[in-house]
């Protein structure tokens, strides 16, 4: 079995709950841009995230957030620098969310060397609604930014992108 790519982009969210679908929207765009080998989408328990960190040098996690900032605001956090800010609530609806998974991994010394969290501030999380306009724009911009970052770090298949 081959080694996993050193870069993993984990996109969290539920497409059926409004702006909670920001992560999956970023995943879709990254796949369209040729980064499918580096993208995984999650909507289940947070422990799946930590399991996929094994053997990865660099992990980027994308999720929706609720902090009171304007919709579409992008929060970028370095999880290796310390605990995530308490006023930034990630939109997880699961028992063990991203912040808890990161702290558990920190306690167990399982954090990747480079773990960044990109959280897109949402507006609404009602069932059945699509992304709000500002969140949709932010998701597309973030995906384009992450593609550029992946290319700078030598991600395979990034050059095969379609525009």
Considering the chains and any ligands shown, give keywords for the structure:
six-stranded mixed beta sheet, 4 helices, alpha/beta, disordered C terminus, 163 residues, Rossmann fold
Question: How would you summarize the topology of this molecule?
Answer:
Blueprint: E1 7-12, H1 22-32, E2 39-42, H2 47-51, E3 58-66, E4 74-78, E5 89-90, H3 98-107, E6 114-121, H4 133-152
Parallel strand pairs: 1-2, 1-3, 3-6
Antiparallel strand pairs: 3-5, 4-6
Helix pairs in contact: 1-4
What does this entry look like structurally?
- By secondary structure, the protein is an alpha/beta fold.
- It has one domain (7-160): Rossmann fold, CATH 3.40.50.1450.
- The protein is 28% helix and 21% strand.
- It has four helices and six strands, in the order βαβαβββαβα.
- The protein has helices at 22-32, 47-51, 98-107, 133-152, and strands spanning 7-12, 39-42, 58-66, 74-78, 89-90, 114-121.
- Strands 1, 2, 3, 4, 5 and 6 form a six-stranded mixed sheet that branches.
- Helix 1 (22-32) links the parallel strand 1 and strand 2 (39-42).
- Helix 1 (22-32) crosses helix 4 (133-152).
- It starts with 6 loop residues before the first strand and ends in an 11-residue tail after the last helix.
- This is Hydrogenase maturation protease.
- GO terms for molecular function: aspartic-type endopeptidase activity; enzyme activator activity.
């Amino acid at each position: 079995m081959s080694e996993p790519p050193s870069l993993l982009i984990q996109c969290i969210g539920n497409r059926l709950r409004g702006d909670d679908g920001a992560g999956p929207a970023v995943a879709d765009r990254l796949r369209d841009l040729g980064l499918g080998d580096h993208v995984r989408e999650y909507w289940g328990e947070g422990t799946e995230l930590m399991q996929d960190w094994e053997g990865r040098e660099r992990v980027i996690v994308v999720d929706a957030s609720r902090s009171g900032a304007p919709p579409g605001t992008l929060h970028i956090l370095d999880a290796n620098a310390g605990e995530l800010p308490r006023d930034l609530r990630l939109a997880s609806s699961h028992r063990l969310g991203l912040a808890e998974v990161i702290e558990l991994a920190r306690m167990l010394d399982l954090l990747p060397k480079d773990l960044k969290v990109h959280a897109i501030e949402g507006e609404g999380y009602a069932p059945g609604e699509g992304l709000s306009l500002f969140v949709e724009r932010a998701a597309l911009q973030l995906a384009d930014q992450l593609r550029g970052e992946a290319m700078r770090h030598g991600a395979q298949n990034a050059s095969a992108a379609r525009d």
